[in-house]
Write the structure tokens for this entry.
Amino acid sequence: MQFSIWHWAIVLLFIGVPAFFAVRSAYKPVKNPEELVGFGGWLMLLAIGQALSPLRTLASLGSSSDGYSQLMLVSNGPMVVYGEVVLLLAFMVLQIVVLVAMLRRSLRFKQLFLAQWIAIPVVFILDAIWISTILGVPVGQVVSEEALAASIGWFVLAGLWVAYVYRSVRVRNTFTRVKASAQVANAA
């Protein structure tokens, strides 16, 4: 698979331009940093993406249903299908936990968002190893170039958002809520 100059231009457009503006806005001096609170600016884009991420995982599961039905006829196929479905559902649960932490403005959001980012390649690798082991085929036959490129692309894009989450003043000011039990313990 070869990429033309237009493919690289599109990649630069989708990754480079948002990264440029994110870095530029991160170094832009703010007159009153305390005013940067809540879901606005770049954080609103992150919130929309996080809200849509479980739906994307669910759509991925749905689009694989034809492949799953074919795989169910193969020896050990049902075990592969059930394992992959469990893995994707576990990832979707993590995405929902991160979404809830974000909506509750929890202090744990940053760590959970980082864990979600790390889970992208972990899920991909575990899935490839699972299928390869159960079916007894080399990993190279299980993983397509398109799937690898898509996983790397999502990992890089999510990595830019992780950098934003850890550098943003708005994120630091917005995610300040701790559990009520921790607040009571600190007050005593």
The mean pLDDT is 78. The chain has one domain: 38-179. The two ends are 63 Å apart (CA to CA).
